[in-house]
Amino acid sequence: MSATADAELELFRQTVNCAAVLERMMGGWKLDVRQSTKRALKYRRGPGEIIIVNHDGHGWWDATGNAKGDVFNLVQHLDPSLNFGQVRQVLRRFVGVTPSYPEAVRGGTGREADRPVAERWARRPHLRRGSDAWAYLTGQRALTGRVLEAAAAQDAVREGPYGSAWFAHRLNGRVSHVEIRGPAYKGSLTGGHKTLFRFRRGSRAMRRLAIAEAPIDALSLAVLEDMRADTLYVATGGGMGPGTIEALTEILDQLAATPDAMVASAVDANTAGDRYAARHAELAADAGVPFARLRPPEGLDWNDVAQQGRGP
Hints:
There is one protein chain. The chain has helices at about 5-15, 20-25, 70-80, 85-90, 110-115, 115-120, 130-140, 145-155, 215-225, 240-255, 270-285, 300-310, and strands at about 30, 40-45, 50-55, 60, 70, 155-160, 165-170, 175-180, 185-190, 195-200, 210, 230-235, 260-265, 290-295. It is an alpha+beta fold. The chain folds into two domains: about 5-105, Alpha-Beta Complex (DNA Primase, Chain A), CATH 3.90.580; about 110-310, Rossmann fold. The strands form three sheets. Strands 1-2-3-4-5 form a five-stranded antiparallel β-sheet, with helices on one face. Strand 2 and strand 3 (about 50-55) form a beta hairpin. Helix 3 (about 70-80) packs across helix 4 and helix 9 (about 215-225) packs across helix 12 (about 300-310). The chain is globular, with a radius of gyration of 21 Å. The chain starts with a helix and ends with a helix. About 40% of the residues are buried.
């Protein structure tokens, strides 16, 4: 490669925004404003297609697979038929182009949204029997009082406004991210660092890791399995970013030294879920831990199964 070509590639990496490429190159990619933050812009296109733009527009990763990289890699990911020269031609159109995402993504509005995630969590009431959040989780979501009491005792779930439930991700014991589910809302607090939602019963040695997508799915599986005492139930919050993979790797390293250990991928029974399961299998293989796919009936997740009263 000539010095001129090298200089042009560096120009692309420094001046072309991955978000602008997503918005204008192929069409169909839309920003998920509610689930985007200043550091991570979440773009969706169709069921199960999610790309996160990070590093101020200079980097990206496919939240449903393993692909990631710089803007050059992004163009090749969006259109694998393009050769090196054609990718350069595409990128020349985007030098200096500004993405169209709204200013609201740059930060929450109001004093409450500016508070750290852990502080906002601490200000919410603990989950209690008879509350609006309890009614939502037991009524619409078919979770049992026994599982919810255990989750509340672990401070894994708290009450949000308007009957919503807040689910904690933790980093080094401190709340780092909060997922929110309610009768009319699905999202998360801005400004957090996603790792894993965790739930388990008792203090027996952990021999099994069950990985779900959403916290409600993890708790639903715990309901269906009568809260297996040897199992740590976790949820990734959908796509797996660096913090989630790091947290899973730490758990798998523990399991690697445990006799009869097992990883069960309990993600949804759809195309995106199967991609997540394949990634879980790779992580388990890297750690040397046996793997199994715990797949619900086609098109369903484990909360669907719990609502139907069916076993795993």
